[in-house]
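Renewal narrative, Specific Aim 1. Our central claim is that a sequence can be written position by position from structural information alone. The example that follows is taken directly from our test logs and has not been curated for this report. It begins with the structure tokens describing the chain, in the order in which they were read.
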């Protein structure tokens, strides 16, 4: 009987939708999506969106994005945002952020946050924190954190830590861990390391690593590496490398080189570089220099330097000076010094 009633309900809903009822069109879109018929769902959502239903605009944009029609998806997110639909605002903001349009991203996250969207509160708080506007950031982050959004708990902790309120920062990070966000184990571990408590740091990193969190795995590997537990460090690096982590690949190269296997080191450095590791480029330069392939070494150092690696800049300057290109060497040394000042 329930199945029969469902069919009757769908029959009348379809009739209403075919008759131009926008609410029925939206419901048909939702029903078709749940049934696994995205093409028909898109058709109904499109009709409802054209009829002015703002939720359908966002739903249509989701379907378009899923099938790779990103430009049209963004247009519908924009339409939904202009119509005041919070999720449309949030996804439009995400798109703006991916394309480097931070001002637009902050604007739309802010609009969605003011409409009560928790992920957008967390996101606008994060952007404000990254822009150095800690007081504004704290207001948004605290609202989202108190509502249980773990990403906001982590960012709020960073704001508090930078202000010198380490104890409250740690409380928020522990809350995030209890809520299941293992990214917070890295913040707690790093704080423990700064306070000179390596055993506490190891405990936090192990908790994150046991849960499969990539950064925690790498940080645990680094901690073990520094204290000489190389076999266990390598096992953790391998786990992270299997997840595609470039830092772990770079560190596997370091371990290989330290045990005299430059072929394996080069293979890991190349793999790391392919995954975006800048230090791996500099390390490839050192390997080339060691085998006296100075042209290749300069090429690797230059690649690293051009994307901002200070060690790459210094190594490139050294090579340039050695072959008589003193003027260019001085330019790279000046840039390296400027980069160091920026970092600190």
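The sequence written for that structure reads:
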């Amino acid at each position: 009987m329930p199945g029969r009633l469902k069919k009757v309900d769908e029959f009348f809903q379809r009739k209403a939708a075919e008759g131009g009822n926008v609410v029925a069109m939206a419901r048909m879109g939702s029903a078709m999506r749940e049934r696994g018929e995205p093409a028909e769902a898109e058709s109904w959502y499109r009709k409802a969106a054209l009829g002015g239903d703002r939720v359908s605009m966002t739903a249509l944009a989701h379907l378009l994005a899923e099938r790779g029609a990103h430009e049209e998806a963004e247009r519908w997110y924009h339409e939904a945002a202009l119509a005041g639909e919070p999720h449309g605002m949030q996804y439009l903001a995400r798109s703006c952020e991916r394309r480097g349009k931070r001002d637009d991203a902050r604007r739309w996250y802010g609009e969605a946050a003011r409409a009560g969207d928790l992920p957008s509160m967390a996101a606008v708080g994060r952007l404000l924190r990254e822009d150095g506007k800690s007081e504004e950031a704290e207001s948004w982050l605290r609202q989202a954190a108190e509502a249980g959004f773990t990403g906001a708990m982590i960012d709020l902790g960073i704001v508090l830590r930078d202000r010198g309120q380490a104890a409250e920062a740690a409380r928020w990070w522990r809350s995030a861990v209890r809520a299941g966000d293992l990214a917070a184990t890295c913040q707690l571990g790093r704080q423990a390391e700064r306070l000179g408590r390596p055993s506490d740091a190891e405990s936090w990193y192990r908790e994150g690593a046991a849960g499969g969190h990539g950064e925690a795995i790498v940080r645990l590997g680094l901690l073990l590496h520094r204290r000489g537990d190389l076999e266990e460090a390598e096992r953790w690096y391998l786990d992270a490398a299997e997840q595609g982590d470039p830092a772990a690949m770079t560190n596997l190269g370091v371990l290989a080189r330290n045990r005299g296997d430059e072929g394996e080191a080069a293979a890991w450095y190349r793999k790391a570089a392919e995954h975006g590791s800048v230090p791996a480029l500099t390390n490839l330069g050192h390997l080339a220099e060691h085998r006296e392939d100075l042209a290749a070494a300069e090429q690797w150092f230059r690649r690293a330097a051009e994307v901002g690696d200070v060690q790459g800049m210094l190594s490139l300057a050294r090579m340039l000076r050695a072959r008589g290109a003193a003027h260019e060497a001085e330019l790279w040394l000046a840039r390296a010094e400027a980069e160091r000042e920026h970092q600190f």
